[in-house]
Design brief:
The protein is an alpha/beta fold and about 400 residues long. It is about 50% helix and about 15% strand. Helix 7 runs parallel beside helix 8 and helix 10 runs antiparallel to helix 11.
């Protein structure tokens, strides 16, 4: 029995043994493009035969018949092709392979979306495609249309149901420039990264705003709750304005840990360059202490040494103390899971590589499209639980009994 693979093998042998110039195989006018053109045109002729009910050159009394062909330029992944599309006299033939008014075949959309996800502008994509596809002209409006189709996916993703419990959620933000009302505004994009019960990371949502505050965060957290997230054990954040109040209102049982890394950065904001290394060294005993009592003693030592020169540092630590030392209740091997927002900062740094290519976004939707596509590429790698997760869960099951 002869299979399709046998036929394909014979066809390839015939090409290889022929006198065809295979050195031009991949060029614009090479054998591969000519084969593609031939296959596409044969497929269209087969569609026309099915539509009309008779083969080419056969007689018909159906009332409709062939009416020659029309030329059409299409874009493929290998370049631009001019093909002959069959026509019928009644104008009813609608090809499935390449529909009317379509100038591309499957594969081009994925290429455009991939380039957009990497942060390329619409005009940059147009230039790139022109180089890739032998000078083929693809309009910026077509590229925009293809990327605009992503918005429905973004909305579905942003409203998708969530797990009932996420032991850990990290909140952080990155800044982008957006054109709005003929002005260029600096806007913050806030990201929520959750760790589920199996220890795997997921991006739960994106929000964009010019200003943050308790009302802003109250709306965002309420949105998460409406999507099914009923409980958070620990929320790790920078000292975002209004965050503590909003968390207490929507998830009153949550433990709110402020990021130690951000706290150290904030502490160094007004420190002379020559003192920074010493100040960092003296802050270290506070957040590496074995107990809360030891941390308090280390803070007192720091105050005694530095309050005269930099009083705002200890004042900030004292103001936020209860939210800075939550992680000290946990064993050393899982403290790093809790006290820093490194997990989300690493993620945001990858997003920034994408957004820096676009100096100004034309709209909020453009921001969401770009970040949504980038998230898809980044999170494909998130297949394993975070480090020390089993130890963390064992502790959570005891500490948060009845909530997991």
């Amino acid at each position: 029995m002869i299979t399709k693979n046998d036929n394909l093998s014979k066809a390839l042998d015939l090409i290889a043994e022929s006198e065809a110039d295979l050195s031009n195989l991949f060029k614009e006018d090479g054998l591969l493009n000519r084969l593609t053109k031939g296959l596409v045109e044969r497929a269209l002729q087969a569609e026309a035969k099915t539509h009309l009910g008779y083969d080419k050159y056969e007689h018909t009394t159906s009332g409709n018949s062939r009416n020659g062909t029309s030329k059409k330029n299409i874009i493929t992944e290998k370049g631009s092709l001019e093909i002959e599309v069959p026509r019928d006299r009644n104008g009813q033939f609608e090809p499935v392979l390449i529909p009317k008014r379509s100038t591309r075949i499957e594969g081009l959309d994925d290429k455009i979306i991939s380039l957009y996800a990497k942060g390329m502008s619409v005009t940059d994509i147009q230039t790139q495609l022109k180089e890739l596809y032998g000078g083929a002209e693809i309009s910026t409006s077509l590229i925009s249309q293809i990327t605009n189709d992503i918005i429905d996916e973004v909305k579905a993703w942003q409203t998708r149901p969530l797990e009932a419990v996420y032991p850990l959620i990290f909140f952080d933000c990155l800044f982008v420039k957006v054109r709005q009302d003929k002005r260029i505004l600096n806007k913050a994009v806030y990201v929520a990264l959750g760790v589920d019960l199996s220890g795997k990371k997921d991006i739960l949502g994106l929000w964009i705003s010019e200003n943050e505050g308790a009302k802003f965060w109250l709306n965002n957290l309420t949105e998460l709750k409406n999507r099914g997230l009923q409980d958070i054990l620990i929320a790790c954040t920078d000292n975002l304005t209004g965050m503590s109040e909003a968390i207490a209102a929507v998830y009153p049982k949550v433990e709110h840990q402020l990021c130690i890394v951000h706290q150290i950065r904030n502490s160094l904001r007004y420190v002379s360059y020559k003192d920074r290394k010493t100040v960092v060294t003296d802050l270290n005993p506070i957040y590496t202490a074995n107990t809360i009592a030891a941390a308090e003693a280390a803070l007192e030592e720091f105050r005694a040494k530095w309050d005269k020169q930099y009083p705002q540092i200890s004042k900030s630590w004292c103001t936020h103390w209860d939210n800075l030392v939550i992680f000290l209740q946990y064993p050393p091997e899982i403290r790093k899971v809790i006290y820093t927002t490194n997990a989300i900062e690493s993620f945001n740094s990858q997003l920034r590589k994408v957004t820096k290519n676009k100096r100004v976004f034309p709209s909020d939707d453009a921001v969401f499209k770009t970040l949504f596509l980038a998230i898809g590429y980044i999170t494909k790698k998130w297949t394993m639980p975070i480090r020390n997760w089993n130890e963390a869960m064992a502790h959570f099951l005891i500490k948060f009994e009845g909530r997991i």
